Here is the input.
Amino acid sequence: MLPELYNYWVVIVLMMIGFYIVIVQGNLIKKLIGLNIFQTSVFIFYISVGKVEGGSAPILAEGVSVYSNPLPHVLILTAIVVGIATMALALALVVRIKNAYGTVEEEELQERDLRC
Amino acid sequence: MLSHLPILQVIVPLLAAPACLLLDRARAAWLFACMASFISVVISGLLVFQVHQFGVLSYSLGGWDAPWGIEYRIDVLSAYVLLIVSGIGALMILAADTAIRTEIPSERQPLFYVLYLLCLAGLLGIVATGDIFNVFVFLEISSLATYALIAQGRDRRALWAAYQYLIVGTIGATFILIGIGFLYSLTGTLNMQDLANRLPALESSATAFTAFAFLMVGVCLKLALFPLHLWLPNAYAYAPSIVTAFLAATATKVAVYLLIRFHFSVFGVGFAASVLPLHSIFLVLGLVGVFVASLVAIQQPNVKRLFAYSSVAQIGYMIIGIGIGTVTGLQATLLHLFNHALMKGALFLALAAIVFRFGSADIRHFAGLGQRMPWTMAIIVIGGLSLIGVPGTVGFISKWYLVLAAFERDWWLLIIAVLLGSLLAVIYIWRLIEVAYFREGEGEPRGEAPLSLLIPTAILALANIYFGIDTRLPVYLSDSAAQMLFGGGP
Amino acid sequence: MLAGIYGLLSASFFVSMDAVDVAFTEAAVGAGVFPLLMLTALTVAGRYEQTVHRRPRAAFFLVLVTGALMIVGTLDMPAFGSLDAPAHTHVAARYIELSPTEIGIPNMVTSVLADYRAFDTLGEVVVVFTAVVGVLIMLTPGEQRQQPSPANAVETMRSHMILRVVSKMLIPLMLLFALYVQFHGEYGPGGGFQAGVIFAAAIILYAMLFGLVKAQAAIKPSILRLLAAFGVLLYGGVGVVSFLTGVNYLDYSRLATDPVVGRHIGIFSIELGVGITVAAAMILIFYAFAGYATGRAEAE
Amino acid sequence: MTALLALQLTLVVPLCGALLIALCGRWPNLREAVTLSTAGLLFYLVIQVFGAVERGGDEAAALYVELWQILPGLHIALHSEPLSILFALVASGLWIVTSVYSIGYMRANQEKRQTQFYVCFAVAIFAAMGVAFSANLLTLFLFYEVLTLSTYPLVAHKGDDKARAGARTYLGILLATSIGLFLPAMMWTYFVAGTLDFRSGGILEGNIGGIGATILLLMFMFGIGKAALIPVHRWLPAAMVAPTPVSALLHAVAVVKAGVFTIAKVVIYIFGLDFLVDVPHEVIAVYIAGFTIVVASILALRQTNIKRMLAYSTVSQLSYIVLAVLVLTPLSEIGAIVHIVAHAVAKITLFFAAGAIYIASKKTEINQLDGIGFRMPITMAAFAIAALSMIGVPPTGGFVSKWYMIAGAFQVDSYFVLVVLTLSTGLNAAYFLPIIFRAYFRKESVAPPKPHGEAPLPMVGAICVTALLTLLVFFLNGPLVAFEMAVLGVPR
Here is the structure.
């Protein structure tokens, strides 16, 4: 079973690293990088689901009978775009936060809020 | 054209948004947005009627039948929620023009309306679609719009709140995405109906269980179910008042809808019970949520925050309703969806009026408000009574059904707990009333809020009373929806 | 930088999973847009940081639980790459078998993306649109608005003669390539989104070398806004047209007498919509960030 | 006009009246005219309904109208039966008198916001009518709350800190009790009984037993805060800050009467006498009521301010009614019902008198009253009559009701009740007689700055009328009692 599933497990490890960073990191930008890793690994997970042994890219071609599953690819195309859109928004937020607070560290943010 | 209503419901606001950007003048954008949202109300009304007439409406996009194409599927439940969301959305946009005048600089206002419409469209899309991945896409549309909207609050903490919400929300969405991935790898389909047909065979599989778990956690993050509620109070407290009002009245409702949809329609009632004691978990979390949140609410100096916590508590009630696990319980939840939208809508809009006058919703501004803004305060009182559950208001109806459901189960402790919960509500409402009516206001006197803000608020407040007396519509819809959900698939 | 490398890595991974389209996109996004955004953000936010980790243990535990749950979840999953997994046999099978004849284009990803699940893609475009509006509303300075003057932070590269010459030649090529990707999407990997990103990249490069002001003079933000909105409307409009032809939303079959041709037209036009919106959005986002940065640079 | 129509109009008329009053606010005379005519019309309508009930038979039975169905099993419905018609008569009748009186009072006192005053008053009457004619507990609850909310502005009328503090206690206690106890008790009742309709013989029998019934009974007794049992009585003295006509409204016309009326309704039509007899420890409730009577009387004894003293006397008098209701014998029920009327007319007289004294001489303390009897003979005469009624001396209404109470107590030889009644009678005498004594048999210690006679005419007129009523209750008790027998299903 392990050889069959190792691929997923690798992905999961990667995913969890990202997740961990998101939770633990105090620096807002690093949080986002963590989030990005988290999401990307989910994409990989999907693509792995779509992989077919000995299949080739799902573009019609002569002499190819087995194609990989196009559906996950489509979903992930969408998901990637969603991800990058989220990132853009998040970074814009960070920029504004930096401007308003003068820092992008969670601790400092909180204490500065307490002060005012 | 009538046959296209399901999709029109979503694309009218969806396409109105970019058109709104083209206008690029606040007033024009506002009028346009009003038009679009009122059209969508009409559509949702027609949809309710159609569903009532012909039963479930299925609309296959691009002409590809499910499961190959994306299907829009309107049953009683979705029609009901669509009605709530679009109705509230329209009322809020009415008030928006005045409400944001003081809160958002003029050159940003057109963009504000664009985002508002996008958010509305996203929420409607989540409810209307019958395709589980499509849910994810529209969830993100509404979420992104929401983050941006929240960040528009004047207090810089709004930015921080928006960021937190963004992180939590994205994690939630990703969890849902993972859940979908598992489901797909297990069944090879994304259509809810199709899933519902294929899942029972795989009930025992660990993958199905994991998918279920991830979907539930993801939704509960969005739903701000205790203890995952931490993002909500800040977001509601610092967002522009109108945004708060809109979100409080719609976003959480849609999240509850998703919960119910996944739980009952996709996986089926039996599933959860077979793999884990979900209902008892819901009961416990709901109860704890009600009490903790209410207790915290009592100590809040900022009234917006106070009602934000009370929202968390109310969500607790809805979850309890699901946790009871009977038709009546579910009906109580559905009723509370409707009723809570009305009361919180009225309350937060009233707060918007107060913010409009005082610049913040701090409780010290409430001193002497009974004389200064009699109408606004009267509305707050009505909303408060409704929140407590006094007969003659909608709050009573939902409480009534909740207690009824508990009674059918002979869970006296639960009944007592629910009633105690309402007593906590009495306490924090009383705090407001006391300050507003029994304390002299200091500072220069300020007048009543402008009519453009007051009228929508009043409409909502009256709705609180009207639907507390004439309960036929919500009771009928929620009843048939609950019946259908327990009868099986969507 | 690291992020960029990570992006490239995952892209290459996608290739090995023969998801060329995804790989292409990820390459464009993960290695291109994301790091770029990061950098611009960093120029504003500054590099300074203190490394405090909050409640690492609790977090680690949480992560562990989640991971374990997922591992459990995978246990009952069909073996990796197995042919007969339901994922491949149920819905996807039809796409692979029938799409060439139904849609009549070789790239199945495109046909699924732009036809079977076209509505998802509409949603995707709207997401991009939402993001750009969100960025604009957040980075449009309020009342205290300053025009970025020629002397601004993003113009540091002016001095590099070689760079400018090279890129002068490069930029037109990129634009051409973008167009190719745009219209060739039906046959090879690629499509509206990728094209849009590349196009945007070209403009952004231009902006970096010749300064934001020049770039904004060349391509006005106001026009970009219109384009961004127009793309979405075009996409949605196609659906509306299919109403008028008396079929369901986004059903292209009646756009021409022959359904297949109709679908070609439909796909072509929506891909165009995607491309326009994405390109405009990306450029606008960059403008917003850069403009904000310079605005603050002057404020200090 | 059919009685059924009249029944519905009793709700419509006061509301329209309130609306008109609000519209005519700018022209005082017109406004007062509207008030009076509304009051008169309402009284006429109530008489119509009364007639139907009096005639009995099908017509009386048909006096039921369902206005609305909130949920299956939850109706807003009106019904008229002897008990309710009596309350309605008292409220609507006294409204006329009070309006006349308050016109005099408000003008003589140059009160502010008079329009608001009259509007709220009308709304309060509307609520009282609703309470009287409600056919089930839910309807009653709704109007009960309306009554609370509509009287709040009246209590806070003066608008200074003292008034606001009083109003706060008033609203706080009444809302808290009704929402915290009354509402849950109501829900409980529905869930066990499956209905909330008032049925003779009660609806709880066989549906709830043992200690549960006792708890439910106590929840009702304290939940109905308007009945002012100790310890939820504090709102009543607190509300004394209000202008005198309002005190009259609270103590005689609507509010407290609504409280005891509700308790009577609950005991008679929800529990049912026969069932309540079997309820364990039902006697606890009796003790609470008795305790309230005695303690409140003692407190009244220690008051120096006339109105506060009257307030405490009300507290104790209310518990007479509750006590009598809980003795659970037909005779005692009659006593209770008659006492609702007797106390109403007597207490309103006392308040009117107190108000008159205040207006004429600005005196509010008991020890200032030396010799007042010679300056204001009519007022004090009325005061004396009412006081005697409070004590229970013939020929006043108080005697009749007390008589039936004692008789009822004898039927079940409940000596506790007898002791309480005699004791409290003594106490009442102890705090009323001194006033009369001062008024007539002491010389004025200091002559008032400016000599004064009686209060303005409308007030004196009103006082005479109510005093007369106090006597009438005594002389006309026969038909009254016979009529009320129907409440207990005793055929006439």
User: Anything to note?
Assistant: Residues 143-157 of chain C have pLDDT under 50 and may be disordered. Chain C touches chain A through 89 residues (CB under 8 Å). Residues 105 and 186 of chain C are 6 Å apart (CA to CA).
